[in-house]
């Protein structure tokens, strides 16, 4: 045990303050039968690497967890002693303590240390430096210190240090030579990490991480003049001597450490000063274990857990488990067998439940799954995307300690799940990702940094040509050490992610808007924002076949587009647009490749983003009908004979379940709408004499008996999958109102109409509110807030205003096709109606608890009116309302312009939207009485040629 001495915390580095004599005595007199001691000489680079915000924070031993496991699995504590080096650290320590402390750089300390070792008869070993440098060092030591006992010198190359088996063999060779002092000069952070993981296996009593000291001892590198060292300019001397090697460190990496040093430094208390000496953070990961079934190294925490059922079997729902494994499949017949077999091996030691959500596979995936009755299957009813599949499986996870999300094209190597779970048990982290190798066992780079403007332009300019570039310019972490040692990370590829169940609930559902790609980036970001720590654990390994979901230009473009969508979600519009430029630049610089040219065309034209892969309806509705949630569908219909048939056809499979009641309210019909609806078995038909949509909705409410309730326009086709997802969302979550996703179908429309809707697609507000899809739904509690539908034109807009953003949601579903007008005149008619509806509601007080949430409803898919700025605010005149309407969306429309085509679309949108508004202003200015209200319905989309093919 080292005698008590003052200690300071310098930006997360706990430094032991000593003079040279005390340090030499502590090292030379270290008991050989005690714990091995690792010695660090901390400078500014050490702060950057291991301090607050450093990549390797919390990766070395601390006073709370000083233990380490050596190569043969036997626990051998490793203690740490951190000495003061670097002029900025010395100045900060002096300021905190009010005393003057010397620099104890390894290059200064090694000479007196070797003198003391020679006098005490201690054997010394040297690890690091080239073979030539070591030969020079050997000759010099023989000449200057003939009595020094040299146990050996080892000069491994980087490939050996990056390989675990080679490192273990190296440690064994060193142990055979039996050095008592081992000087390790491998460079930061490699030397500290290597000592932490393999140091105890060397058998050395003291291991010293002294950087380039071997080169200094051999006179291969000239030391800085005393005048430079005395004035804190040794770094400048070294930079001038070796600019290519040291420029990145001194000019890019180290300066941020100065800020950290000032912000996060403190003098430790006297109690802390006498505790066992730590360095930074914790030991690297959990103790390395063999596969639990082998009977060696099994975690006692896991051994204490009783197993239910036969070994190798998966637990049924209703039983508590250690890990719930969630897998999303889509045509993965070729890979699924290997994954399941590897999971069964893990189930010999752990209680595992396997839940597989299938996204409408059309190959033999379901046949393979049916061979395993102990696997819980969830049929999503369509290709809803990876995130939606994960969420569907999450709902069936049951009582579990941890949730493990796996790609279907993985194979879990023995002990991987146990090793990841052990990290959660140790308290090291809340989210764990494993090491990933390909089918041939080669490492797959899987660790990533948070996307930023620096990383997107760095990746665009350099790609894979400069893998070791500064972290600010690279999203992918390519450093070999990053994959050999456990540490905290920003995020990793989502092929394998384990999260403690409590933290997973805190993070919440995966964001289904991404469909595929970037959903894991978003999940990890939200994890970090919730306070969770994400840990990379190399002791856990999975093999990834990759491309299990296929590859295409469309998927490549979706990956690029979703990166932009991710930035838009978490950053400002300006940042997102600059980031998008970086993505465009990436594709542009590689446009000599045909696939990149196609991706470039899609990324550059936002109007084409809707055509990228997204949620699609199932071709097998029977899959989604089992256990269908209860609810009511109310359809107001006024002379809808042309379209009511296809609307009810889409609901016919749901009607057969007996779980959903469908009510068609024919309000003032003069055609045969009622007869057509009554001909569909199970449909209730109500005939109301007044041609009022809101009266029809209230009439349907009086008859309906089920909750939640879906209000569906008679010309809107709602798939069974979309209906199920909406009902489940309102039944299983706290939201009060919801609608499904939708898309505009402008096929057969005139050019001005298509331009109008291209511009409209680019407006974010069209994706956020309840209006626009021809369908919305309310829970019982949400309907209680509504009461009954008032006599207004835009019922969707009225309902949307009742709920805050947290109380309503857009459910990611196969998109509902919204038919746009086919003719320009029809669009103008609808726009005229859409001005009147919101104006009516502005002139009337809103409900007391209502919160305006975005543009008003535009039935028949017309364009957005403006945002209201205050609940219950009344426009002074119709002209005021119109002017307010025109101005509130102008900025959003302007920001949607991305190039010449989008500019033309925006002009078309503005012109069409302004035409009925100007007419209304002229009427108001002339004092012309308003004409009797007529219902401006779009009949162009209801004609047979307007129906979807």
UniProtKB/TrEMBL annotation:
InterPro entries: Glyco_trans_2-like, Nucleotide-diphossugar_trans, WecG_TagA_CpsF
Signal peptide: none
Biased composition (Basic and acidic residues): 935-949
Limits of the Glycosyltransferase 2-like domain: 325-449, 632-769
Region (Disordered): 272-306, 836-884, 923-949
Biased composition (Low complexity): 874-884
Pfam short name (any one): Glyco_tran_WecG
Highest taxon above the source species: Bacteria
Membrane spanning stretches: none
PANTHER family: RHAMNOSYLTRANSFERASE WBBL
UniProt name for this protein: Glycosyltransferase 2-like domain-containing protein
């Amino acid at each position: 045990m080292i005698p008590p001495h003052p200690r300071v915390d310098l930006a997360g580095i706990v430094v032991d303050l000593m003079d040279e004599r005390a340090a030499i005595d502590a090292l030379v007199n270290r008991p050989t039968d005690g714990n091995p001691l690792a010695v660090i000489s901390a400078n500014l680079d050490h702060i950057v690497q291991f301090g607050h915000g450093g990549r390797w924070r919390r990766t070395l031993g601390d006073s709370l967890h000083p233990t380490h496991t050596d190569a043969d699995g036997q626990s051998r504590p490793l203690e740490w002693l951190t000495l003061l080096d670097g002029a900025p650290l010395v100045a900060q320590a002096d300021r905190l303590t009010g005393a003057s402390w010397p620099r104890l750089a390894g290059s200064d300390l090694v000479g007196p240390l070797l003198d003391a070792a020679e006098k005490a008869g201690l054997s010394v070993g040297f690890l690091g430096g080239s073979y030539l440098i070591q030969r020079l060092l050997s000759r010099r030591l023989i000449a200057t210190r003939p009595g020094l006992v040299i146990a050996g010198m080892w000069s491994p190359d980087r490939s050996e240090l990056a390989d675990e088996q080679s490192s273990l063999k190296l440690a064994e060779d060193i142990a055979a030579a039996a050095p008592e002092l081992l000087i390790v000069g491998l460079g930061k952070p490699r030397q500290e990490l290597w000592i932490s993981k393999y140091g105890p296996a060397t058998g050395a009593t003291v291991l010293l991480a002294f950087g380039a000291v071997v080169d200094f001892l051999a006179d291969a590198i000239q030391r800085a003049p005393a005048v430079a060292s005395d004035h804190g300019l040794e770094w400048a001397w070294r930079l001038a001597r070796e600019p290519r090697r040291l420029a990145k460190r001194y000019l890019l990496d180290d300066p941020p450490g100065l800020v950290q040093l000032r912000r996060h430094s403190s003098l430790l208390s006297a109690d802390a000063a006498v505790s066992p000496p730590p360095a930074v953070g914790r030991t690297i990961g959990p103790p390395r274990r063999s596969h639990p079934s082998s009977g060696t190294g099994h975690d006692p925490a896991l051994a204490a857990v009783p197993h239910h059922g036969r070994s190798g079997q998966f637990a049924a729902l209703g039983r508590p488990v250690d890990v719930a494994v969630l897998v999303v499949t889509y045509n993965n017949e070729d890979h699924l067998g290997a994954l399941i077999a590897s999971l069964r091996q893990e189930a010999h030691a752990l209680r595992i439940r396997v839940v597989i959500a299938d996204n409408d596979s059309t190959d033999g995936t379901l046949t393979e799954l049916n061979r395993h009755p102990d696997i819980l299957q969830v049929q999503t009813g369509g290709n809803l995307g990876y995130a939606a599949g994960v969420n569907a499986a999450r709902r069936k996870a049951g009582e579990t300690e941890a949730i493990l999300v796996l790609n279907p094209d993985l194979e879990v190597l023995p002990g991987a799940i146990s090793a990841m779970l052990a990290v959660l048990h140790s308290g090291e982290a809340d989210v764990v990702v494993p090491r990933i190798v390909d089918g041939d066992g080669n490492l797959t780079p899987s660790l990533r940094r948070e996307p930023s403007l620096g990383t997107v332009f760095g990746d665009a300019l350099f790609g894979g040509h400069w893998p070791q570039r500064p972290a600010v310019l690279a999203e992918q972490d390519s450093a070999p050490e990053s994959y050999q040692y456990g540490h905290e990370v920003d995020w990793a590829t989502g092929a394998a992610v384990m999260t403690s169940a409590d933290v997973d609930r805190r993070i919440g559902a995966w964001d289904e808007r991404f469909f595929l790609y970037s959903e894991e980036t978003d999940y990890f970001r939200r994890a970090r924002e919730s306070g969770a720590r994400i840990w990379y654990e190399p002791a856990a390994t999975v093999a990834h076949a990759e491309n299990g979901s296929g590859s295409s230009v469309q998927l490549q473009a979706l990956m690029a587009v979703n990166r932009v969508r991710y930035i838009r979600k978490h950053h400002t519009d300006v940042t997102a647009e600059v980031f998008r430029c970086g993505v465009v630049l990436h594709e542009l610089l590689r446009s000599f490749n045909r696939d990149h040219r196609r991706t470039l065309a899609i990324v550059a034209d936002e109007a084409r983003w809707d055509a990228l892969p997204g949620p699609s309806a199932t071709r097998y509705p029977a899959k989604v009908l089992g256990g269908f949630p209860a609810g009511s569908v109310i359809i107001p219909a006024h002379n809808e004979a042309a379209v009511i048939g296809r609307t009810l056809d889409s609901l016919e499979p749901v009607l057969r379940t007996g779980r959903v009641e469908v009510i068609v309210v024919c309000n003032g019909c003069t055609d045969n709408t009622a007869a057509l609806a009554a001909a569909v078995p199970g449909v209730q038909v109500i005939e109301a004499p007044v041609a009022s949509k809101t009266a029809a909705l209230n009439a349907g409410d009086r008859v309906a008996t089920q909750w939640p309730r879906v209000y569906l326009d008679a010309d809107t086709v709602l798939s069974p999958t979309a209906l199920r997802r909406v009902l489940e969302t309102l039944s299983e979550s706290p939201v009060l109102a919801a609608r499904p996703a939708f898309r505009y179908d402008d096929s057969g429309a005139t050019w001005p109409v298509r331009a109008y809707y291209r511009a409209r697609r680019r407006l974010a507000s069209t994706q956020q509110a309840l209006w626009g899809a021809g369908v919305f739904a309310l829970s019982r509690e949400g309907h209680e807030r509504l009461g009954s539908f008032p006599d207004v034109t835009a019922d969707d807009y009225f309902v949307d205003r009742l709920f805050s953003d947290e109380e309503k949601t857009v459910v990611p579903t196969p998109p509902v096709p919204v038919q746009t007008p086919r003719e320009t005149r029809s669009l103008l008619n609808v726009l005229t109606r859409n001005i009147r509806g919101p104006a009516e509601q502005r002139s009337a007080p809103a409900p007391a608890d209502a919160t305006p949430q975005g543009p008003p409803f535009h039935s028949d898919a017309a364009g957005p009116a403006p945002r209201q700025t205050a609940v219950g605010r009344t426009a002074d005149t119709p002209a005021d309302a119109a002017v307010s309407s025109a101005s509130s969306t102008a900025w959003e429309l302007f920001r949607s312009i991305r190039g010449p085509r989008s500019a033309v679309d925006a002009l078309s949108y503005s012109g069409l939207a302004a035409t009925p508004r100007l007419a209304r202003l002229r009427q108001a200015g002339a004092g012309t009485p308003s004409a009797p209200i007529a219902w401006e319905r779009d009949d162009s989309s209801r004609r047979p040629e307007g129906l979807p093919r």
